[in-house]
Amino acid sequence: MITAIVLIHAATDSIPEAAQAIADIDGVAEVYSCAGGVDLVAVVRVAEHEELARLIPGRISKVPGVLDTDTHIAFRSYSRRDTDAAFDIGVDEA
């Protein structure tokens, strides 16, 4: 599975509608509205890179209110749970 994080600039008056429209697109796992340098952050999960090529410029960028996107492809996922599980290998709980 390929995960991409898409940073989205949107017209201020259409952020809620754009966020919902993006969230409704197949392949989009989550959409967050946020403060800072971007208006929305979408997490996209697809099986093949070609799907990213169709999904981001072909669907997300065409949502009314979306002004610009910046896509970052994830190489590896890290989380506290994953780290804790690695240290539990070989430990039997009583």
UniProtKB/TrEMBL annotation:
InterPro entries associated with the record: Dimeric_a/b-barrel, Tscrpt_reg_AsnC/Lrp_C
Pfam family, one: AsnC_trans_reg
Cross-referenced SUPFAM superfamilies: Dimeric alpha+beta barrel
Domain Transcription regulator AsnC/Lrp ligand binding residues, every copy: 7-76
Coiled coil: none
Name the UniProt record assigns to this protein: AsnC family protein
